[in-house]
Amino acid sequence: MSSRPTTPKTSGNNNIRVICRFRPENKVEKENNGKVFVDILDHMSVKVQSNEYSGVFSFDRIFDWSTKQDDLFHYSCEEIVNDIMNGYNGTIFAYGQTGSGKTWTMMGSGPDNSENRGLIPRMVEKIFCMISDSPETIEFAVKVSYMEIYMERVRDLLNTINENLPIHEDKSRGVYVKDLSEVYVSSLNEVFAVMKQGTDARMIASTNMNQESSRSHSIFVMTIEQKDLSDMSVKSGSLFLVDLAGSEK
């Protein structure tokens, strides 16, 4: 699921887009002669039919199991990155059962140069490319933070001493987490080093689907601050990357 900026440039009903992506059968499903219960009718609707249920669901866009990471990025994320660089906020999160392909969609093969890179490395790479191509009169500062929500408590994943952090709201900052750590970064590799540090600190619990599946939600925030030295104007945009726990109970 991808969300356009929280402060939209224009009025309309397209500020939130819901995208459905199907993965191919995995090894276990093939070995068990699993049956496909979905029929993609067009690029916006899909029919689900089984012995217990039948229904048609509509989305802003549907991507089948043959979709490449690059195609998904261009449709769902490229415009959000442009908006963030223009001083707006944007959010991307994946929702689904453990094993449905959330991690592959978001991370893929990681921060390498292969075609299997996920949405996150592609977005971060594009941000730094846009910074590099910007006029010399613009100064940039990029900072990241990483938090976990577990049992209704907010925990700082970059400084695990900070547990049960309070949530505040004011007119200038909006909703924010007080005392949450912020780390300045200057490259794709630095961003992923911070992400790894936070991911290693996440609470892991066993589920029926995947013993390594996290039972917590996490939010990684990347903020881009800009100052134009020609007129001293400033603007700031934040990218929120949300990793939800598996949707199974």
Q: Which key features would you list for this structure?
A:
alpha+beta, 22% helix, 249 residues, disordered N terminus, Kinesin
Write the layout of secondary structure elements.
Elements: E1 2-3, E2 16-17, E3 19-21, H1 27-31, E4 38-40, E5 45-49, E6 54-58, E7 61-63, H2 69-76, H3 78-85, E8 90-94, H4 102-106, H5 119-132, E9 138-150, E10 153-156, E11 167-170, E12 174-177, E13 183-185, H6 188-201, E14 217-228, E15 233-243
Parallel strand pairs: 3-7, 8-15
Antiparallel strand pairs: 1-2, 1-8, 4-5, 5-6, 9-10, 9-13, 9-14, 11-12, 14-15
Description:
This protein has 249 residues and is α+β, with helices and mostly antiparallel strands. It has a domain of 168 residues: Kinesin. The chain has six helices and 15 strands. Strands 1, 2, 8, 9, 10, 13, 14 and 15 form an eight-stranded mixed β-sheet that branches. It has a three-stranded antiparallel β-sheet with strand order 4-5-6, with no helix packed on it. Strands 3-7 form a two-stranded parallel sheet. Strand 4 and strand 5 form a beta hairpin. The longest helix has 14 residues. This is P-loop containing nucleoside triphosphate hydrolase protein. InterPro entries: Kinesin-like_fam, Kinesin_motor_CS, Kinesin_motor_dom, Kinesin_motor_dom_sf, P-loop_NTPase. Pfam families: Kinesin. GO terms for molecular function: ATP binding; hydrolase activity; microtubule binding; microtubule motor activity.
